[in-house]
TrEMBL record, chains A, B:
Database matches in InterPro entries: HTH_LacI (IPR000843), LacI/GalR-like_sensor (IPR046335), Lambda_DNA-bd_dom_sf (IPR010982), Peripla_BP_I (IPR028082)
Annotated HTH lacI-type domain residues: 1-53
Protein name as catalogued: Transcription regulator hth laci
The keyword Transcription is assigned to this record: yes
Length: 332, 332
């Protein structure tokens, strides 16, 4: 501060006032001080830029679970694109906890972010703007916003993915498909459930909760028992669509213990295309989401909103997904 | 602001001065305004708390790669412990890029964090405190700080893990072990390299870079060729210690294509104990780091520093690791 004062020929108090932006200085003085600050290095440069443009050049991301590789990949790619555009990314992990999410929203707002990216979550997303000093632009990925007109919604076409996976199972000879999912589901797994049911309908297979649905818990040992009981009660089951790869990978191990062969006896297709799909035995077929496109679309949409271009507000972008066929769903 | 002014019986300008903490108001006025602010909800409550205690109750984390499950797990657990203690966690992903790391350090400082946790990275960590307005306490995980006296260093005992893995291979009959690692290595992989070499020494196995070291690149296809050439040039190789599980998992697939049986012909032990180890065929033996202990120690150390308890400064905590034996290293 002392050096900056000397270099710009003003008092230390004036430099402090400029840095705190509290108004008791002339435009000319401000310019002089900011120029010196900018010349003395990046970190203060950053503050100076913020003061000058009334922007912080930082974007907040709310993510439900960074240990989920799909989310981690999306976040990583968003960060990369934003950094190239001069924005820094601040990530907060909400652990799928509504209270935590609310707290982190407040934190991010208090950290003066320019915009916000919301990734997934259990319920529709609602941003209580009245608590923020100014309206903060935001976009939602894989999670429906409550206030659709104020934001842009970007999502993989989960319905299409589930529909294609189920039709692929049927095309490969599956007569009695079931879906495996969690009770407490996100908006994207609800879409996947719909896609599964509609594929059955289209192929004239009757759907019943009893015969075509298996709900998993979070405990692995418990799930093993649930699966065992399900295949005992429904021995005709010859294909499983699992709403995510983690469920599918566990089932491959469970079925091995039950001496049920995958894909000969039961074919499996998962969702998300996590790296482990390539290492399991058999390798797991899965639906791949285009994380790169999701990241690009989220960033470009948000930056438009930040720049005051509001013509995309209310838009929904559904990005296509792709079936990656591996051993677990192969026709024998 | 208007409501707060009305409720606390002062002018809007005074509320603004209190919020910006610029000093031109009495303690009594400040108390009155803060009380009203605290009563009107969490987000402003948060700012009020910050002003009152001169603390932001937020902690920054610099992580090199959130798509690495070991890092993601550590971060997730740190967040959980911190949140329970009333702190929010702000995560920045540096993508193993020194420039980015510097930029994010500046961002975090400008966001008024109370403390900083640095996870891993290529070089020793150096925090240029002169650029920060006040000294920000920090701790380092898996990365040696340059200025050891100013911080606390927490790390798994990578040396011990590598030593035990290598001795286990030898105990299971391996006569010609090799280590597989990346050229550009972190301080933790350097430790792992030392552990490997010392285990060879203790067991009277000569070490040479030519015969006992295989350097991998980042490209999978290239690595397949590198491995193929290595086993051709050194057909005696019967055990591999890979510095991380990702390398070990790829090698299992590569060796399958080369019709080399794991563990009969070549035994493998990895490092990190990522979930995929349980899904591969054969399952991959690995060294497990105690992420929970790492997270707990990092948080308790940092909070001590923040609270002004400096007696632990300069300390190094090396946490024990554990060999998880699976099929890939089994005695035949």
């Amino acid at each position: 501060m002392k050096d900056i004062a000397e270099l710009s020929g003003v008092s230390i108090a004036t430099v402090s006032r400029v840095l705190n932006n509290n108004g008791r200085f002339s435009e000319e003085t401000k310019e002089k001080v900011l120029k010196v600050i900018e010349e003395t290095g990046y970190q203060i440069n950053y503050s100076a830029k913020t003061l000058r443009m009334n922007k912080s050049f930082s974007i907040g991301i709310l993510v439900p679970d960074i240990t989920n590789l799909f989310f981690a990949n999306v976040v990583e790619q968003i960060e990369e694109i934003l950094f190239d555009k001069g924005y820094s990314t601040i990530i907060c992990n909400t652990a799928r906890d509504a209270k935590k999410e609310k707290a982190y929203l407040s934190v991010l707002v208090s950290k003066l972010i320019d915009g916000l990216i919301i990734i997934s979550g259990a319920d529709d997303f609602e941003f209580e703007h009245q608590s923020a000093k100014k309206e903060i632009p935001y976009v939602c990925i894989d999670r429906e916003p409550k206030d659709k007109d104020r934001t842009i919604f970007i999502s993989s076409n989960h319905y299409q993915g589930a529909f294609e996976a189920t039709e692929n199972l049927i095309a490969n000879g599956v007569k009695h498909p079931a879906i495996v999912l969690h009770k407490k589901s996100s908006s994207s797994s609800k879409e996947r459930f719909s896609g599964f049911k509609d594929a059955l309908k289209k192929n004239n297979i009757d759907f019943s909760n009893e015969e075509n649905t298996l709900f998993f818990h979070t405990n692995k040992q418990e799930n093993k028992t649930l699966l065992k009981n399900f295949v005992n009660d429904h021995p005709d089951t010859d294909g499983l669509f699992t709403v995510n790869d983690n469920i599918g990978l566990d089932i491959i191990l469970f079925l091995k213990e039950l001496n049920i062969d995958v894909p000969k006896d039961i074919k499996i297709i998962g969702f998300d295309n996590v790296p482990t799909c390539e290492y399991s035995n058999p390798t797991l077929s899965s639906i791949k989401q285009d994380t790169e496109k999701i990241a690009k679309k989220a960033v470009s949409s948000l930056i438009k909103l930040i720049d005051g271009q509001t013509e995309d507000k209310g838009k929904i972008y559904l990005l296509p997904v792709q079936l990656i066929e591996r051993e677990s769903s192969k026709l024998q």
